[in-house]
Amino acid sequence: MALYVENATKKFGDFTAVDDISLKVERGQMHGFLGANGAGKTTTFRMILGLLEPTHGMVSWNGKPITYGTSPEIGYLPEERGLYPKMKVEDQLIYLAQLRRMPRQEAKREVANWLGRFEVPHYASKKVEELSKGNQQKIQLIASLLHRPSLLILDEPFSGLDPVNVEMLKSAILDFQKEGATIVFSSHRMDHVEELCDDISILDKGKMILSGSIREVKRSFGKQNVRVKTDGDLSALAEVAGVEKYKKTHDGALFQIMDEATAQTILVESMKRGPLRHFAIEEPTLEEIFIARVGKAYA
Ligand SMILES: Nc1ncnc2c1ncn2[C@@H]1O[C@H](COP(=O)(O)OP(=O)(O)OP(=O)(O)O)[C@@H](O)[C@H]1O
Protein backbone atom coordinates (compact mmCIF):
# COMPACT_ATOMS: atom_id res chain seq x y z
CA MET A 1 0.00 0.00 0.00
CA ALA A 2 2.05 2.90 -1.24
CA LEU A 3 2.51 5.59 -3.82
CA TYR A 4 5.01 4.51 -6.45
CA VAL A 5 6.58 6.71 -9.09
CA GLU A 6 8.69 4.47 -11.31
CA ASN A 7 11.23 5.91 -13.74
CA ALA A 8 8.88 8.74 -14.62
CA THR A 9 9.96 11.15 -17.34
CA LYS A 10 7.99 14.07 -18.73
CA LYS A 11 9.06 15.88 -21.86
CA PHE A 12 7.46 18.99 -23.28
CA GLY A 13 8.71 18.92 -26.89
CA ASP A 14 12.49 18.65 -26.66
CA PHE A 15 12.57 19.88 -23.07
CA THR A 16 12.78 17.27 -20.31
CA ALA A 17 10.96 18.71 -17.28
CA VAL A 18 11.16 15.49 -15.22
CA ASP A 19 13.97 13.06 -15.95
CA ASP A 20 13.61 9.40 -14.96
CA ILE A 21 12.63 9.84 -11.32
CA SER A 22 11.54 7.11 -8.93
CA LEU A 23 9.89 7.58 -5.57
CA LYS A 24 8.09 5.41 -3.05
CA VAL A 25 5.93 6.89 -0.31
CA GLU A 26 4.61 4.34 2.18
CA ARG A 27 1.06 4.58 3.39
CA GLY A 28 0.69 7.02 6.29
CA GLN A 29 3.94 8.85 5.58
CA MET A 30 4.48 12.56 5.07
CA HIS A 31 6.94 13.14 2.23
CA GLY A 32 8.58 16.49 1.46
CA PHE A 33 9.16 17.12 -2.22
CA LEU A 34 11.77 19.81 -2.67
CA GLY A 35 13.42 21.59 -5.54
CA ALA A 36 14.27 25.04 -6.82
CA ASN A 37 11.80 26.94 -9.00
CA GLY A 38 11.27 25.05 -12.21
CA ALA A 39 12.81 21.81 -10.89
CA GLY A 40 9.77 19.75 -11.93
CA LYS A 41 7.72 19.38 -8.73
CA THR A 42 4.36 20.49 -10.11
CA THR A 43 4.92 18.44 -13.27
CA THR A 44 5.56 15.37 -11.10
CA PHE A 45 2.43 16.07 -9.04
CA ARG A 46 0.41 16.36 -12.25
CA MET A 47 1.73 12.98 -13.37
CA ILE A 48 0.87 11.46 -9.97
CA LEU A 49 -2.66 12.84 -10.29
CA GLY A 50 -3.09 11.57 -13.83
CA LEU A 51 -3.44 15.13 -15.16
CA LEU A 52 -0.33 14.65 -17.29
CA GLU A 53 0.68 11.45 -19.02
CA PRO A 54 4.33 10.50 -18.32
CA THR A 55 6.45 10.31 -21.48
CA HIS A 56 8.06 7.22 -19.92
CA GLY A 57 7.53 5.38 -16.67
CA MET A 58 4.49 5.01 -14.49
CA VAL A 59 2.74 6.05 -11.30
CA SER A 60 0.58 3.87 -9.08
CA TRP A 61 -1.36 4.21 -5.84
CA ASN A 62 -2.03 1.00 -3.94
CA GLY A 63 -0.94 -1.00 -6.93
CA LYS A 64 -3.27 0.71 -9.43
CA PRO A 65 -2.72 3.55 -11.85
CA ILE A 66 -4.49 6.75 -10.78
CA THR A 67 -7.48 7.33 -13.02
CA TYR A 68 -10.85 9.09 -12.90
CA GLY A 69 -12.17 6.08 -10.96
CA THR A 70 -9.58 6.38 -8.17
CA SER A 71 -9.82 10.18 -7.92
CA PRO A 72 -12.11 10.19 -4.83
CA GLU A 73 -9.20 8.58 -2.95
CA ILE A 74 -7.00 11.54 -3.80
CA GLY A 75 -6.91 15.15 -2.67
CA TYR A 76 -4.93 17.89 -4.42
CA LEU A 77 -4.06 21.41 -3.42
CA PRO A 78 -2.70 23.04 -6.60
CA GLU A 79 -0.05 25.74 -6.46
CA GLU A 80 -2.19 28.12 -8.48
CA ARG A 81 -5.68 28.92 -7.20
CA GLY A 82 -8.12 26.27 -8.28
CA LEU A 83 -11.39 27.66 -6.93
CA TYR A 84 -14.24 29.39 -8.73
CA PRO A 85 -13.90 33.06 -7.72
CA LYS A 86 -17.60 33.94 -8.06
CA MET A 87 -19.02 30.92 -6.23
CA LYS A 88 -19.86 31.04 -2.52
CA VAL A 89 -17.42 29.19 -0.26
CA GLU A 90 -19.87 26.72 1.25
CA ASP A 91 -21.63 25.95 -2.07
CA GLN A 92 -18.28 25.40 -3.74
CA LEU A 93 -16.86 23.12 -1.06
CA ILE A 94 -20.02 21.01 -0.99
CA TYR A 95 -20.03 20.83 -4.79
CA LEU A 96 -16.39 19.66 -4.91
CA ALA A 97 -16.96 17.06 -2.16
CA GLN A 98 -20.02 15.71 -4.00
CA LEU A 99 -17.93 15.35 -7.16
CA ARG A 100 -15.75 13.03 -5.05
CA ARG A 101 -18.81 11.05 -4.02
CA MET A 102 -19.40 12.49 -0.56
CA PRO A 103 -23.12 12.73 0.32
CA ARG A 104 -24.41 16.31 0.43
CA GLN A 105 -25.49 16.34 4.09
CA GLU A 106 -22.17 14.93 5.25
CA ALA A 107 -20.29 17.45 3.11
CA LYS A 108 -22.33 20.31 4.59
CA ARG A 109 -21.54 19.15 8.13
CA GLU A 110 -17.84 18.74 7.34
CA VAL A 111 -17.64 22.17 5.70
CA ALA A 112 -19.06 23.73 8.88
CA ASN A 113 -16.53 21.79 10.98
CA TRP A 114 -13.57 22.87 8.86
CA LEU A 115 -14.61 26.52 8.57
CA GLY A 116 -14.98 26.50 12.36
CA ARG A 117 -11.60 24.86 12.88
CA PHE A 118 -9.94 27.45 10.61
CA GLU A 119 -11.76 30.25 12.45
CA VAL A 120 -13.62 31.45 9.35
CA PRO A 121 -17.22 30.19 9.83
CA HIS A 122 -18.53 33.59 8.66
CA TYR A 123 -17.01 33.02 5.19
CA ALA A 124 -19.48 30.26 4.31
CA SER A 125 -21.72 32.59 2.32
CA LYS A 126 -18.97 34.84 0.90
CA LYS A 127 -17.71 34.53 -2.64
CA VAL A 128 -14.15 33.19 -2.89
CA GLU A 129 -12.99 36.38 -4.66
CA GLU A 130 -14.00 38.41 -1.59
CA LEU A 131 -11.46 36.54 0.59
CA SER A 132 -7.83 37.49 1.14
CA LYS A 133 -5.14 35.30 -0.44
CA GLY A 134 -4.36 33.56 2.86
CA ASN A 135 -8.01 32.83 3.56
CA GLN A 136 -8.48 31.49 0.03
CA GLN A 137 -5.60 29.13 0.80
CA LYS A 138 -7.50 27.82 3.84
CA ILE A 139 -10.53 27.14 1.62
CA GLN A 140 -8.27 25.48 -0.93
CA LEU A 141 -6.88 23.15 1.75
CA ILE A 142 -10.41 22.33 2.95
CA ALA A 143 -11.35 21.55 -0.67
CA SER A 144 -8.42 19.13 -0.94
CA LEU A 145 -9.18 17.08 2.18
CA LEU A 146 -12.90 17.48 2.85
CA HIS A 147 -13.77 14.17 1.16
CA ARG A 148 -11.17 12.36 3.32
CA PRO A 149 -8.77 11.21 0.62
CA SER A 150 -6.22 8.53 1.50
CA LEU A 151 -3.56 10.29 -0.61
CA LEU A 152 -3.14 14.05 -0.30
CA ILE A 153 -0.89 16.02 -2.65
CA LEU A 154 -0.17 19.57 -1.52
CA ASP A 155 1.71 21.97 -3.80
CA GLU A 156 3.08 24.78 -1.62
CA PRO A 157 0.33 24.56 1.02
CA PHE A 158 1.73 27.35 3.22
CA SER A 159 2.41 29.99 0.60
CA GLY A 160 0.87 33.36 1.38
CA LEU A 161 -0.04 32.49 4.97
CA ASP A 162 0.86 34.46 8.08
CA PRO A 163 2.62 32.52 10.89
CA VAL A 164 -0.58 31.98 12.89
CA ASN A 165 -2.35 30.51 9.88
CA VAL A 166 0.71 28.41 8.97
CA GLU A 167 0.46 26.77 12.42
CA MET A 168 -3.28 26.25 11.98
CA LEU A 169 -2.84 24.51 8.62
CA LYS A 170 0.17 22.50 9.83
CA SER A 171 -1.79 21.09 12.72
CA ALA A 172 -4.71 20.20 10.41
CA ILE A 173 -2.32 18.42 8.02
CA LEU A 174 -0.64 16.53 10.88
CA ASP A 175 -4.03 15.44 12.26
CA PHE A 176 -4.97 14.27 8.80
CA GLN A 177 -1.79 12.19 8.65
CA LYS A 178 -2.56 10.71 12.10
CA GLU A 179 -5.87 9.51 10.73
CA GLY A 180 -3.87 7.44 8.23
CA ALA A 181 -3.52 9.62 5.13
CA THR A 182 -0.40 9.54 2.96
CA ILE A 183 0.76 13.06 2.23
CA VAL A 184 3.23 14.47 -0.28
CA PHE A 185 3.88 18.16 -0.19
CA SER A 186 6.21 20.63 -1.82
CA SER A 187 7.57 23.67 -0.10
CA HIS A 188 10.38 26.15 -0.38
CA ARG A 189 10.33 26.52 3.40
CA MET A 190 12.82 23.96 4.66
CA ASP A 191 11.90 24.56 8.30
CA HIS A 192 8.32 23.45 7.57
CA VAL A 193 9.57 20.38 5.77
CA GLU A 194 11.93 19.50 8.61
CA GLU A 195 9.15 19.83 11.14
CA LEU A 196 6.53 17.82 9.29
CA CYS A 197 8.16 15.19 7.10
CA ASP A 198 9.51 11.70 7.63
CA ASP A 199 11.21 11.47 4.25
CA ILE A 200 12.23 13.96 1.62
CA SER A 201 13.41 14.02 -1.93
CA ILE A 202 15.13 16.83 -3.77
CA LEU A 203 14.70 17.46 -7.48
CA ASP A 204 17.20 19.50 -9.43
CA LYS A 205 16.50 20.38 -13.07
CA GLY A 206 14.16 17.42 -13.36
CA LYS A 207 16.54 14.89 -11.79
CA MET A 208 16.22 13.35 -8.34
CA ILE A 209 19.48 14.23 -6.60
CA LEU A 210 18.68 13.15 -3.03
CA SER A 211 16.05 10.99 -1.39
CA GLY A 212 15.63 9.37 2.02
CA SER A 213 14.69 9.99 5.63
CA ILE A 214 15.62 13.40 7.00
CA ARG A 215 17.91 11.67 9.50
CA GLU A 216 19.79 9.77 6.76
CA VAL A 217 20.01 12.85 4.58
CA LYS A 218 21.53 14.85 7.44
CA ARG A 219 23.92 12.10 8.43
CA SER A 220 25.16 11.57 4.90
CA PHE A 221 25.84 15.31 4.50
CA GLY A 222 28.89 14.71 6.73
CA LYS A 223 29.06 18.20 8.21
CA GLN A 224 27.93 19.73 11.47
CA ASN A 225 27.54 23.20 12.89
CA VAL A 226 29.00 24.79 15.97
CA ARG A 227 27.10 27.70 17.44
CA VAL A 228 28.88 30.00 19.89
CA LYS A 229 27.31 32.93 21.73
CA THR A 230 29.82 35.40 23.05
CA ASP A 231 30.80 39.05 22.81
CA GLY A 232 34.37 38.03 21.89
CA ASP A 233 35.60 38.50 18.30
CA LEU A 234 35.77 35.02 16.75
CA SER A 235 36.53 36.07 13.16
CA ALA A 236 40.09 34.68 13.32
CA LEU A 237 38.64 31.21 13.95
CA ALA A 238 37.45 31.13 10.34
CA GLU A 239 41.03 30.02 9.55
CA VAL A 240 41.02 27.03 11.94
CA ALA A 241 41.70 23.75 10.07
CA GLY A 242 38.44 21.84 9.60
CA VAL A 243 36.26 24.97 9.53
CA GLU A 244 34.40 24.92 6.21
CA LYS A 245 32.37 28.06 6.75
CA TYR A 246 32.27 30.87 9.27
CA LYS A 247 29.35 33.22 9.75
CA LYS A 248 29.12 36.05 12.24
CA THR A 249 25.74 36.13 13.96
CA HIS A 250 24.14 38.90 16.01
CA ASP A 251 25.15 37.14 19.24
CA GLY A 252 28.34 35.28 18.28
CA ALA A 253 29.23 32.97 15.41
CA LEU A 254 28.20 29.87 13.51
CA PHE A 255 30.79 27.48 12.09
CA GLN A 256 30.31 24.66 9.64
CA ILE A 257 32.79 21.90 10.46
CA MET A 258 33.85 18.53 9.08
CA ASP A 259 34.58 16.65 12.33
CA GLU A 260 34.09 16.88 16.07
CA ALA A 261 37.80 17.48 16.77
CA THR A 262 37.37 20.88 15.11
CA ALA A 263 34.56 21.64 17.57
CA GLN A 264 36.99 21.12 20.46
CA THR A 265 39.45 23.57 18.89
CA ILE A 266 36.68 26.13 18.40
CA LEU A 267 35.65 25.72 22.04
CA VAL A 268 39.16 26.24 23.35
CA GLU A 269 39.89 29.18 21.01
CA SER A 270 36.52 30.85 21.67
CA MET A 271 37.07 30.75 25.44
CA LYS A 272 40.37 32.59 24.97
CA ARG A 273 38.44 35.46 23.33
CA GLY A 274 35.88 36.10 26.04
CA PRO A 275 33.31 34.39 28.25
CA LEU A 276 30.84 32.13 26.40
CA ARG A 277 27.08 32.34 26.93
CA HIS A 278 26.40 29.28 24.80
CA PHE A 279 28.29 26.56 22.94
CA ALA A 280 26.57 23.80 20.98
CA ILE A 281 27.25 21.27 18.24
CA GLU A 282 24.20 21.20 15.96
CA GLU A 283 23.17 18.96 13.09
CA PRO A 284 23.06 20.60 9.66
CA THR A 285 19.75 22.17 8.68
CA LEU A 286 17.87 20.99 5.62
CA GLU A 287 18.25 24.49 4.22
CA GLU A 288 22.06 24.20 4.32
CA ILE A 289 21.93 20.79 2.67
CA PHE A 290 19.55 22.07 0.00
CA ILE A 291 21.73 25.08 -0.79
CA ALA A 292 24.89 22.96 -0.87
CA ARG A 293 23.30 20.42 -3.23
CA VAL A 294 21.13 22.62 -5.44
CA GLY A 295 23.30 25.73 -5.54
CA LYS A 296 23.41 29.22 -4.25
CA ALA A 297 20.99 30.60 -6.79
CA TYR A 298 18.23 29.40 -4.49
CA ALA A 299 17.24 31.89 -1.79
N1 LIG B 1 2.95 22.61 -20.16
C1 LIG B 1 4.25 22.90 -20.22
N2 LIG B 1 4.86 23.13 -21.40
C2 LIG B 1 6.18 23.39 -21.47
N3 LIG B 1 7.00 23.46 -20.40
C3 LIG B 1 6.46 23.25 -19.20
C4 LIG B 1 5.07 22.96 -19.03
N4 LIG B 1 4.82 22.78 -17.70
C5 LIG B 1 6.00 22.97 -17.07
N5 LIG B 1 6.98 23.25 -17.97
C6 LIG B 1 8.40 23.49 -17.66
O1 LIG B 1 8.86 22.39 -16.89
C7 LIG B 1 9.77 22.83 -15.88
C8 LIG B 1 9.29 22.34 -14.54
O2 LIG B 1 8.14 23.10 -14.16
P1 LIG B 1 7.36 22.82 -12.81
O3 LIG B 1 6.19 23.73 -12.79
O4 LIG B 1 7.11 21.36 -12.69
O5 LIG B 1 8.44 23.26 -11.71
P2 LIG B 1 8.30 23.42 -10.13
O6 LIG B 1 9.40 22.63 -9.53
O7 LIG B 1 6.91 23.10 -9.70
O8 LIG B 1 8.60 24.97 -9.95
P3 LIG B 1 8.08 26.07 -8.89
O9 LIG B 1 8.81 25.80 -7.59
O10 LIG B 1 8.54 27.36 -9.50
O11 LIG B 1 6.60 25.95 -8.79
C9 LIG B 1 9.85 24.35 -16.02
O12 LIG B 1 11.00 24.67 -16.75
C10 LIG B 1 8.60 24.71 -16.77
O13 LIG B 1 8.79 25.87 -17.54
Automatic annotation (TrEMBL):
Recorded superkingdom: Bacteria
Pfam families: ABC_tran, DrrA1-3_C
GO molecular function list: ATP binding
UniProt key word Nucleotide-binding: yes
Location of the ABC transporter domain: 3-230
Keyword Calcium: no
Gene3D superfamilies attached to this UniProt entry: P-loop containing nucleotide triphosphate hydrolases
Record keywords: ATP-binding, Nucleotide-binding, Transport
Family the entry assigns: Belongs to the ABC transporter superfamily.
Name the record gives this protein: ABC transporter ATP-binding protein
Biological source species: Planococcus shixiaomingii
